[in-house]
Amino acid sequence: MIIKLTKKVLFLCLIVTTLNAKSETIETSGDIIQILIPLGAYGTTYYLDDTDGRIQFYKSFSSTVLLTHTLKYTVREERPNGNDTKSFPSGHTSAAFQGASFIHYRYGFKKAILPYLAASFVAYSRVYSKHHYFHDVAAGAIIGTFSNYYFTTKY
User: Fold this and answer.
1) Which of 10, 29, 35, 15 minimizes the C-alpha distance to 129?
2) What pTM was estimated for this model as a whole?
3) Within a 10 A sphere around the Cβ of 151, how many other Cβ atoms?
4) Longest Cα pair distance anywhere in the chain, in angstroms?
5) Which residues contact 151 (CB under 8 A, 6 or more apart)?
6) What does the CA dihedral 91, 96, 97, 99 come to, rounded to 10 degrees?
7) Is the pLDDT of residue 12 over 80?
């Protein structure tokens, strides 16, 4: 149920963004979707009463956040827009891919197709809005995915 609802919300966000392809709309949509994906994944653990999955989500999410922010403060790469030196890796992208990968590794690839597409849109939105370089979002995607490869088992 929660996965279906999350997919519908993500799909609507992608349609609205495509129809209103302005820079700030794309950026704002990416900001929202990067929260919705892990929130949907986490909510699914409650909907399915999946206590083991919830613990695995906590581990993969916290390791993603910890590694992402440790790298941001140690690498100190300047953003393309020059705002600060926290470009590498993309936190939005690592969060989005953490949620999508959790759904994939825990509940199956078919249920994760739309979340992966939405996570890819988040990565695109970060590069498009000049907050990140391609290698920043690629690293974020790897971090978010790898945390689930390590901590998440099949439901």
Assistant:
1) 29
2) 0.86
3) 20
4) 45
5) 56, 59, 60, 63
6) 120
7) no
Q: In 10 A of CB 67, how many CB atoms?
A: 17
CA atoms within a 13 Å half-sphere pointing along the CA-CB vector of 141:
18
3-state helix, strand, coil in the chain (%, to 5): 80, 0, 20
The secondary structure of 32-98 as a DSSP string is: HHHHHHHHHHHHHHHHTT-HHHHHHHHHHHHHHHHHHHHHHHHH-PPPTTSS-S--SS-HHHHHHHH
| 104-134 pLDDT per residue, tens | 999 999 999 999 999 999 999 999 999 999 9
Burial label, 40 (beta-carbon count in 10 A; 0-12, 13-18, 19+):
buried
Whether residue 138 contacts residue 78, with contact meaning beta carbons closer than 8 Å, is answered with: no
Dist CA 17 CA 131 (whole Å): 18
